[in-house]
Amino acid sequence: QVQLVESGGGLVQAGGSLRLSCAASGRTFVSYAMGWWRQAPGKEREFVSGINWSGGSTYYADSVKGRFTISRDNAKNTVYLQMNGLKPEDTAVYYCAAKVSGSSYRVTLNYDYWGQGTQVTVSA
């Protein structure tokens, strides 16, 4: 069992930055690949970024490539999402999720555990 708790969301002006954190409970964090997803009001949940167990492989949605950076610290059981150059269209609830390695990062059903989400609001 893995519990995920996101933090770091908030209100920021366009062009600003935020760093999201996702703290995982349990001693098996290193066994999981991690993903960040987001859901805006009235829209489906969409993939933002993913990272494998070691941090050696990362994946991004085209909409955030070059602006967002995912990383993880397995000693701290934490995954991060550094978001720079934020745009109003980045406004959403951001979720972190954990999955067993080997399946696609871009499919919600492949994830075994989800956090409760943290709100990110970007003003124009």
Task: Give me a quick take on this structure.
The chain has 124 residues and is mainly beta. The protein is built from no helices and eleven strands. Strands 2, 4, 5, 6, 9, 10 and 11 form a seven-stranded mixed sheet that branches. A four-stranded antiparallel sheet has the order 1-3-8-7, with no helix packed on it.
Detailed description of the structure:
- The protein has 124 residues and is mostly beta strands.
- It is built from no helices and 11 strands.
- It has strands at residues 4-7, 10-13, 18-24, 32-39, 46-51, 58-60, 68-73, 78-83, 92-100, 113-114, 118-123.
- Strands 2, 4, 5, 6, 9, 10 and 11 form a 7-stranded mixed sheet that branches. Strands 1-3-8-7 form a 4-stranded antiparallel sheet, with no helix packed on it.
- A hairpin with a 6-residue loop joins β4 (32-39) and β5.
- The protein is globular, with a radius of gyration of 13 Å.
- The mean pLDDT is 95.
